[in-house]
Amino acid sequence: MKTLISPEKKDWEALMERPQADYETLQSTVKEVFDAVAQNGDEALRDYCERFDGVRPKELLLPANEIKRAEGLLNESLKQAIQQAYRNIKAFHEAQISGRTEVETQTGVRCWQEQRPIEKVGLYIPGGSAPLFSTLLMLAIPAKIAGCKEIVLCTPPSREGIHPAILYTAQLCGVDKIATLGGIQAIAALTLGTESVPAVYKLFGPGNQYVTAAKQYATRYRVAIDMPAGPSEVLVVADQSVPASFIAADLLSQAEHGPDSQVVLVAQSEEILPRVQEALAEQLAVLPRSEIARKALQNSLAVVFEDREVANEFINDYAPEHYIIMSEDEDYFVDHCYNAGSVFVGTFSPESAGDYASGTNHTLPTNGYAKQYSGVHLNSFTKAITFQKLSEEGIQNLGPAVEEMALAEGLQGHQQAVRVRLNYLKSKS
Ligand SMILES: NC(=O)c1ccc[n+]([C@@H]2O[C@H](COP(=O)([O-])OP(=O)(O)OC[C@H]3O[C@@H](n4cnc5c(N)ncnc54)[C@H](O)[C@@H]3O)[C@@H](O)[C@H]2O)c1
Ligand SMILES: N[C@H](CO)Cc1c[nH]c[nH+]1
Ligand SMILES: [Zn+2]
């Protein structure tokens, strides 16, 4: 980890940079795959599966009996854990159901807004380096609560097929359309539609830089995306009261996701650093994914700011995907947090709790996009539609103002739509 003591503000921008693959190479690969899928459908999907994942699936959509079979392959304690997570995530997302907003803006003019589901959605479940069945809970549960009609799931195939925990979770959530597709080709299939894979209206889910670039590219085809949810990251702010082993474990929990993950420690005192370095070394020595985590740590950062206001400004500028606050200044940092995907407050709130089972969603904006995007939530799966109904009295009350404004914009057709009604009502009375 690169260590800096009170870096000056002019140097912050460089510190905010996340590890990035070469943009031009990414874009040209994404375009190549989209063009091929547009032209050759399923056949192109099989070709790219073979090239990027080393398998050529015969059936791109999994048959229902294979999905059912997974239940028998999972041990009981894992099933219980998944069910516990399911209940918490469902409870938290059900609580987000927002009713209809209705206002009579003036007499006879009634306006209301309701959430209606996005009918067709595509869920991407990462599976390149770990089978993230937890992501399936995070996406399928709110999609179901929202009432989405068609839910299509894509996840990368391996020689052993799809991991049984992904299939079990899909069945638990009531998702039965599963395509064995990963990476750019999965996103292209869900965007363009092929013989086997239906096109959807909105794409959800995290992924590596290929997946994220493909989702951003997909928006040119009239498909929406949840947000750029790329390589995982965490920022921990800590003071000297926190056990170094907690800080190290939290940093490693995200560093182990991939070599392009980034973790940041904002220490409120320099004295913390050697203790954290020691704890990191100790924990890395026994971490099965230590090679990946070590690479991520090379792109990572420890900064010291003794002044909590400066620390807070740095944190909001960095806009972390996950933000862990372990400090006696907890209330200050919570109250002054403006840019973060999800916040973990206090010494006993490890980020892993939110990754799996506390109830919040783990599909979150990375790479500084927490400045403008929220993580996935229930209304990511809905659209707010507005309605209005004007009574005779309502059009009489509102009409003259609309006419006046339409004329001032030089739009007589608009004025006419009001005038014919007002004339009609006048002739009736
Ligand atoms: N932000 C979030 O909310 C969030 C949540 C969970 C996971 N994540 C991140 O998701 C990522 C998962 O990545 P992953 O790689 O394990 O799985 P993945 O499923 O995202 O990507 C695997 C796919 O990448 C494609 N690919 C690999 N190398 C390629 C190449 N050279 N050219 C073209 N395509 C290639 C392959 O098709 C493969 O199927 C991690 O970075 C993790 O940190 C983020
Ligand atoms: N930390 C990831 C989000 O960035 C989510 C995850 C799934 N499994 C483990 N972690
Ligand atoms: Zn994680």
UniProtKB/TrEMBL annotation:
Q: Which GO terms describe its molecular function?
A: histidinol dehydrogenase activity; NAD binding; zinc ion binding
Query: Could you tell me the EC number(s) of this protein?
Result: 1.1.1.23
Give me the residues that bind substrate, please: S232, Q254, H257, H322, D355, E409, H414
Cofactor comment text: Binds 1 zinc ion per subunit.
By its UniProt entry, which Gene3D superfamilies does this protein fall under? Answer: 1.20.5.1300, Nitrogenase molybdenum iron protein domain
Recorded catalytic reaction(s): these are: L-histidinol + 2 NAD(+) + H2O = L-histidine + 2 NADH + 3 H(+)
Annotated residues for binding of Zn(2+):
Q254, H257, D355, H414
Which pathway does UniProt place it in? Amino-acid biosynthesis; L-histidine biosynthesis; L-histidine from 5-phospho-alpha-D-ribose 1-diphosphate: step 9/9
**Which Gene Ontology cellular component annotation is one that this UniProt entry carries?**
cytosol
Cofactor dependence is on: Zn(2+)
Q: Tell me the Gene Ontology biological-process terms attached to this UniProt entry.
A: L-histidine biosynthetic process
Please give one Pfam family short name: Histidinol_dh
The record, for InterPro entries, names: Ald_DH/histidinol_DH (IPR016161), Histidinol_DH_CS (IPR001692), Histidinol_DH_monofunct (IPR022695), Hstdl_DH (IPR012131)
Indicate which residues the UniProt annotation says bind NAD(+). Answer: Y124, Q185, N208
User: What are the record keywords, sorted?
Assistant: Amino-acid biosynthesis, Histidine biosynthesis, Metal-binding, NAD, Oxidoreductase, Zinc
Q: Where is the active site?
A: E321, H322
What the entry lists under PROSITE patterns is as follows: HISOL_DEHYDROGENASE
Known role: Catalyzes the sequential NAD-dependent oxidations of L-histidinol to L-histidinaldehyde and then to L-histidine.
Q: Please state which protein family the record places this protein in.
A: Belongs to the histidinol dehydrogenase family.
Annotated protein name in UniProt: Histidinol dehydrogenase
